[in-house]
Amino acid sequence: MKKAVTAIVLTAVLLTACGKAAPSSTGHEGMNMSSPEPGGHTGHSAETAKTDEVKATFTLTPDKPQSKKDAQAGIQITDNSNKVIENFDLSHEKKMHLIVVSKDLSYFNHIHPDYKGNGLFDITTQFPAGGQYKLFADFVPTGKSSTTKSQWITVQGNAAKPVAIQPDTNMTKVVDGKEITLAYDPLKSGKETTLTFTIKDAATKKPMTNLQQYLGAVGHVVILSDDAEQYLHVHPMEEKATGPDAKFMTTFPKSGVYKIWGQFQHEGKVFTVPYVVKVP
User: Fold this and answer.
1) pLDDT digits (tens, 9 = 90+) for 19-36
2) pTM above threshold 0.85
3) pLDDT at residue 37 above 50?
4) CA–CA separation, 185 vs 18, rounded Å?
């Protein structure tokens, strides 16, 4: 019996923002990437990305994916006249970065679809529980700006207990034996701020100075508003840094609660650390 396929034409365009300054089919946690500007100060630009020139159509097989079971996602890229876009630039070592988040932002996954040619990308993955998820496809059509398209989907199965998105009171987290502290300038919407991740060995408190490059940089940061409508992707100010500090510069577009994920690599293993902040 053939599996049903549902095509979802992406009409929502995510707000993308400039930051001055992952994985197998199941993927690492992480973030989407964009082409670097000189000096490693990069990000997406809402002013330059003409996303209305590009369309993305998602197909899901089965059309009602089940949690904890393989689901296939195809992503067809065309222009606004439905002509296939065939050529894509490498963006931090990949032609496409696909970000998957649950509605409450407690689940975060970064995977890299395979390019099949003729504008078609394909990936097989699993969702941990039933409920709503948002998919972000990030890519750079050759000759065009970095583009992000998104779509909500519903996954069948038992839903996980929702996790409240509450601003953190402690900006030091321990992940995979690393102690990571996030410091930042006073937050204010529309104003540039520097995010500094300081990474130490959790047991010895010794600053870590041997971070490895992950997808061409010391680290990557993705930021989403609590409703997953405001999207920020930020690259490090010094891409070749090795720690203990990794600095990023960005601007929060509006007031509200945001979740921040920083992703780094040490001894061949990628680790992701999340924070929640409130921006006045």
Assistant:
1) 333 333 333 333 333 333
2) no
3) no
4) 17
Q: Can you name the residues that pair with 139 across neighbouring β-strands?
A: 96, 147
260's tokens:
């921040």
The identity of residue 3, as a single letter, is K
- Residue written as token pair 């409703």: 227
Counting Cα atoms < 13 Å in the Cβ hemisphere of 142 gives 8
Closest alpha carbon to 27 in 156, 125, 128: 125
Please name which of 223, 221, 218, 233 lies closest in space to residue 265, comparing C-alpha atoms: 218
Residue 222 host element (H or E): strand 219-225
Q: Which two tokens stand for residue 86?
A: 């065939």
Alpha-carbon gap, residue 83 to 77, rounded angstroms: 9
Give the span between the Cα atoms of 16 and 8, in whole angstroms: 21
Side chain identity at residue 252, one-letter code: F
Sorted by sequence, the CB contacts under 8 Å of residue 6 that are 6+ apart come out as: 59, 60, 63
